Amino acid sequence: MYRVLHNSAVIVVGEVFYRFMSFFSAILIARSLGGERYGEFSFIYAYLAFFEIFVQFGFNSIITREVSRDRGKAPSLLGSIIYARTGILVVAIPLSILLIRVLGYPISVQQGVLFASFQLLLSMRSVFEVIFRVNLRMIYPVLWNLATGRSNLILIWLGTRHPPTLPMIILCYIASCGIGMLGLAFQSGRYVSVDWSPKWVLIKD
Predict the structure, then answer these.
(1) Does residue 123 have a pLDDT over 60?
(2) Which one of 26, 32, 41, 156 counts the least CB within 10 Å of its CB?
(3) What is the pLDDT of residues 78-92, one digit of tens each?
(4) What would the pLDDT profile of 163-202 be if each residue is shown by its tens digit?
(5) 10 and 138 in contact (C-beta within 8 Å)?
């Protein structure tokens, strides 16, 4: 019971600090880009949110349920879901870029989507996070989340020291999120080694 309460408290406290840093990052972005370009920035991420739903595809629920039932399935299931999500990303990223062009949005928005669409790759983070959730070790995802928030704040602040552009701000955002995802993926190796021999029956079941 103590571990459950501790785990929950860590999540709540970590989320508060992360939101705090995100708030200041948003202020920096809004002040540096100005009203029109900040509107484009917000639209780009709202647009890509629909594709992220497609990329997630319910895999997080599958891996949480199956690993909770049988920890021994974790290596094979993790590898299979990484393969499956990679396959979806191969479709989702070009589709997001193509669709925004077909819809006739301004070149600045099209360029923004071109850069920001690669952030869909970072959806892999949620797969690794499940390993810590089922082991009640959310302290690690929380710490890497805070590292992401801090990196994001620093990179965006550095980016605003020069005349900022929309692609520059997006790349800063992707870089900071990438730090968190790679760190979490590395940390997950303490609990499970990925089995790269896909077993699709695990996902199908």
Answers:
(1) yes
(2) 26
(3) 777 788 888 889 999
(4) 778 888 888 888 888 888 888 888 877 777 776 676 555 4
(5) yes
Q: Are 11 and 60 in contact (CB under 8 A)?
A: no
Six token digits for residue 98 = 């193509």
- Phi-psi sector, 104: left (phi>0), alpha (psi -120 to 50), beta: left
Please tell me the distance from the alpha carbon of residue 82 to that of residue 32, in angstroms, as a whole number.
37
| Angle between the N-to-C axes of helices 125-134 and 59-69, in degrees from 0 to 180, rounded to the nearest 10 | 30
Residue 89's nearest CA partner among 115, 64, 47, 57 is 57
Between CA 194 and CA 202, with CA 196 as vertex, the angle to 5 degrees is: 85
**Is 180:147 a contact under the CB 8 Å cutoff?**
yes
Greatest mean pLDDT among 13-17, 62-66, 105-109 lies in 105-109
Measure the CA–CA gap between 122 and 124, rounded to whole angstroms: 5
What span, in angstroms and rounded, lies between the C-alpha atoms of 119 and 123?
A: 7
Please state, in angstroms and rounded to a whole number, the distance separating the CA atoms of residues 114 and 108.
Answer: 10
Length of the chain equals 205
- Sign of the CA dihedral 39, 147, 154, 112? negative
Q: With cut-offs at 50, 70 and 90, classify the pLDDT of residue 98.
A: very high
